[in-house]
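testing teh design pipeline on a random one, pls ignore if ur not involved
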C-alpha cells in the first residue's frame, strides 16, 4: 500500500513538472513576443534608429556642440548577391582589396554572423552617400543608414567638451544597456552628462521570407520603438571668455579657471596645451598623435594636475592664524632676506622689501618670513599639547577651504590634491620627532601640499565671498536637465567670516597700491578694483611655476580667477597678466588701450619649447 502511494505521488509530481514545462514552452513559443522579435531570430530583421545626441550650449545660448548627419554603409552578408567589386569600390571611394577582405571575413564567419546586418563603412560623406544611393540597386545586401556625428561651431576647448567614441567589447561587458555600434562620451562634458546626452535607440522590425528577404513590418509596426533624442545641456561656460582664455594660454603650459563666486558656476576652464575642437569629430584618427605628444594635450590639468600652490596659500595660513587668535592684523614681523628657522642658520629665503611688515603689507608684498612667523605661532599655540595636536587642528581648518579632498565638481577626473596628515610625518620623521622647522615650507604653500587649479580657483571664490564657496560646476539646470541640490549650497570654512575683509584688503593693495613692494601692480585695471595674490611655486623639474588668484570687483564680485603657468617664473611675470586680462575681458568686454601692449605680449609669447 505504501509503495503504491509513493508511486502515485511520483507520477503526480512528474505530471506537474511536465505541465510546467509544456506551459513554459507554450508561453515562449506562442504568447511571449519577445522571443519572436529577438535580433538573432532569422525570420525577423531589426533596423536600428540612432537618436540625435543632445546638443551643448554655453550659458548665453551659444551652440558649443551640435550634430550633423553622416552615413554608414551597412551590409547583410546573407543578402549579398554577386556584384561588381570594382564598381562598388569606386562608388564608395575605397579599394577593391578592402572589399574583398571584408567579404572574405564575412564568408569565414558566416555561421556566427547569420542574418545580422553589419557596418561596412563608417561616416561616409554626403557626396559618397549620394553616389551610392544612385547605384544601390546594383548591390543587393548593401544599404545606407543616416546617423548624427558631432560638430563644433565654436572653439570652446576640446578638453572641456570631451569626445565620444564607439563602444568596444570591454565597455559592453559593464554596460549591458549599450549595443555594438553605439557611441558614448569618453571625456569632458560628453562623459560627465552621458546619461542626459545619449538618448535612446529605437528600431523597426520587419519579417523575412523563406529566402531571408525583408518583407512587411512585423505586426504592422506594433513592436517598433521610436528613438528618443538626447537632452540638450546648458553649461555655465561663457563661450567667448573660454575662447579668449585659450588664446591667452596658447603656447603656455598650465591652467586658467574662472568662477562666478556667488554660484560656483565655472565661466572658463582652460587646460593648455589642449585638444583643438577641430579633431574631436574624428578623434580616433588623431588619438595616436595626441597621446604621444610630449606636452600631453589629452591631460586635463584643471582638475587632474596636482601642483604646490605657492604663495597664494599664505592667505589660508593667515586666516587660520586670525581665527586662532595667534595673529592680529596690526602685528609686525621682520624680514631680512628670509626666515632663519634653525639654530644652525638655515634660512627660508625671501625677496627684498622693506621691513618690518604688518599683515596687509605682508600680503601685498608676499613676504615669506611673515607667514613663517604666522605658521610657527599656529603650530606652537599653547592651547595644544603637542605639535601634532596643533597640526591636526591646522589641517582640519585648511581642508575646510576645499583642499585635500575632491571638491565634488560635476566634471570628471577630479583629483583631491594633498594636505599631508600627521601620520605621514610620524612615519617619515618618527612620532614626536618633528616640529615647525621640519615642515616650515608649508608656511608658503610648498613642501608636501598639492592642489589642483580648480581648488586654487575655488580659493579665489572663497576670498571673494568672504568665507564660503559653492561647489564649482559646469552644468546649469535648464529644460529637462536638473543639477544636484548640493551645487546650490554654501560651504563655509572654519574661519569666521569676520576675518576675511582684513585679508582681502591686503589683496586689494597688492594690485592697486603702487608701493615699491606690491607684487601684482601688473594686474591693475582702472576702475575694476581687482583684488589679487601672486604665487611663485618651486618646481623640481625646472623654472618656478607662476601662480595668481584674483577676483573683481572688490565689492559684489562677479568673477574669481586662478592662473597657473608652469615653468614661467614669478606670479607677476605671466599668471598675473593672464588672469587680469581675463577679468577685464569679462567685466568690460574689451581691453583698455593702456593694456593693449600687455595683451599683445601675452598673446604672442610662446613659453613651451617644441
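output:
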Amino acid at each position: 500500500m505504501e509503495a503504491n502511494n509513493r508511486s502515485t505521488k511520483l507520477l503526480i509530481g512528474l505530471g506537474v513538472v511536465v505541465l510546467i514545462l509544456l506551459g513554459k514552452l507554450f508561453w515562449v513559443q506562442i504568447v511571449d513576443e519577445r522571443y519572436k522579435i529577438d535580433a538573432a531570430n532569422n525570420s525577423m530583421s531589426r533596423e536600428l534608429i540612432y537618436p540625435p545626441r543632445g546638443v551643448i550650449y554655453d550659458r548665453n545660448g551659444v551652440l558649443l556642440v551640435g550634430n550633423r548627419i553622416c552615413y554608414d554603409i551597412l551590409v547583410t552578408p546573407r543578402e549579398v548577391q554577386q556584384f561588381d567589386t570594382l564598381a562598388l569600390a569606386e562608388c564608395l571611394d575605397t579599394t577593391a582589396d578592402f572589399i574583398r577582405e571584408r567579404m572574405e571575413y564575412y564568408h569565414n564567419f558566416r555561421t556566427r554572423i547569420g542574418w545580422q546586418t553589419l557596418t561596412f563603412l563608417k561616416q561616409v560623406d554626403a557626396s559618397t552617400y549620394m553616389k551610392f544611393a544612385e547605384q544601390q540597386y546594383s548591390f543587393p545586401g548593401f544599404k545606407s543608414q543616416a546617423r548624427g556625428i558631432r560638430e563644433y561651431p565654436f572653439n570652446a576647448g576640446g578638453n572641456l567638451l570631451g569626445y565620444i567614441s564607439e563602444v568596444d567589447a570591454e565597455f559592453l561587458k559593464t554596460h549591458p544597456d549599450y549595443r555594438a555600434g553605439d557611441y558614448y562620451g569618453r571625456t569632458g562634458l560628453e562623459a560627465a552628462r552621458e546619461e542626459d546626452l545619449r538618448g535612446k535607440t529605437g528600431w523597426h522590425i520587419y519579417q523575412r521570407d523563406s529566402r531571408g528577404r525583408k518583407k512587411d513590418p512585423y505586426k504592422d509596426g506594433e513592436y517598433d520603438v521610436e528613438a528618443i533624442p538626447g537632452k540638450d545641456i546648458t553649461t555655465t561656460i561663457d563661450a567667448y571668455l573660454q575662447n579668449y582664455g585659450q588664446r591667452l594660454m596658447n603656447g603656455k603650459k598650465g591652467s586658467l579657471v574662472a568662477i562666478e563666486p556667488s554660484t560656483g558656476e565655472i565661466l572658463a576652464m582652460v587646460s593648455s596645451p589642449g585638444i583643438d575642437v577641430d579633431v574631436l569629430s574624428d578623434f580616433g584618427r588623431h588619438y595616436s598623435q595626441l597621446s604621444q605628444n610630449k606636452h600631453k594635450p589629452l591631460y586635463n590639468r584643471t582638475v587632474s594636475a596636482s601642483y604646490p600652490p605657492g604663495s597664494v596659500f599664505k592667505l589660508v595660513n593667515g586666516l587660520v592664524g586670525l581665527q586662532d587668535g595667534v595673529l592680529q592684523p596690526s602685528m609686525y614681523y621682520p624680514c631680512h632676506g628670509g626666515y632663519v628657522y634653525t639654530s644652525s642658520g638655515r634660512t627660508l629665503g625671501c625677496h627684498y622689501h622693506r621691513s618690518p611688515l604688518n599683515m596687509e603689507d605682508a600680503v601685498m608684498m608676499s613676504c615669506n618670513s611673515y607667514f613663517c612667523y604666522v605658521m610657527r605661532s599656529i603650530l606652537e599655540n599653547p592651547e595644544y599639547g603637542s605639535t601634532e595636536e596643533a597640526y591636526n587642528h591646522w589641517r582640519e581648518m585648511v581642508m575646510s577651504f576645499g583642499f585635500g579632498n575632491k571638491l565634488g565638481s560635476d566634471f570628471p577626473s577630479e583629483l583631491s590634491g594633498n594636505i599631508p596628515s600627521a601620520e605621514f610625518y610620524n612615519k617619515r620623521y618618527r612620532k614626536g620627532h618633528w616640529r615647525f622647522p621640519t615642515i616650515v615650507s608649508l608656511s608658503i604653500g610648498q613642501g608636501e601640499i598639492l592642489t589642483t587649479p580648480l581648488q586654487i580657483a575655488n580659493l579665489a571664490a572663497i576670498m571673494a565671498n568672504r568665507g564660503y564657496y559653492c561647489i564649482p560646476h559646469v552644468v546649469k539646470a535648464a529644460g529637462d536637465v536638473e543639477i544636484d541640490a548640493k551645487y546650490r549650497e554654501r560651504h563655509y570654512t572654519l574661519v569666521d567670516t569676520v576675518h576675511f575683509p582684513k585679508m582681502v584688503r591686503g589683496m586689494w593693495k597688492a594690485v592697486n597700491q603702487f608701493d615699491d613692494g606690491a607684487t601684482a601692480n601688473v594686474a591693475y585695471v582702472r576702475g575694476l578694483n581687482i583684488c589679487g595674490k601672486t604665487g611663485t611655486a618651486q618646481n623640481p623639474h625646472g623654472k618656478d611655476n607662476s601662480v595668481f588668484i584674483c577676483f573683481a570687483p572688490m565689492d559684489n564680485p562677479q568673477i574669481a580667477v586662478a592662473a597657473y603657468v608652469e615653468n614661467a617664473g614669478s606670479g607677476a611675470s605671466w599668471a598675473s597678466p593672464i588672469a587680469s586680462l581675463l577679468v577685464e575681458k569679462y567685466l568690460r568686454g574689451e581691453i583698455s588701450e593702456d593694456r593693449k601692449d600687455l595683451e599683445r605680449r601675452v598673446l604672442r609669447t610662446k613659453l613651451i619649447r617644441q
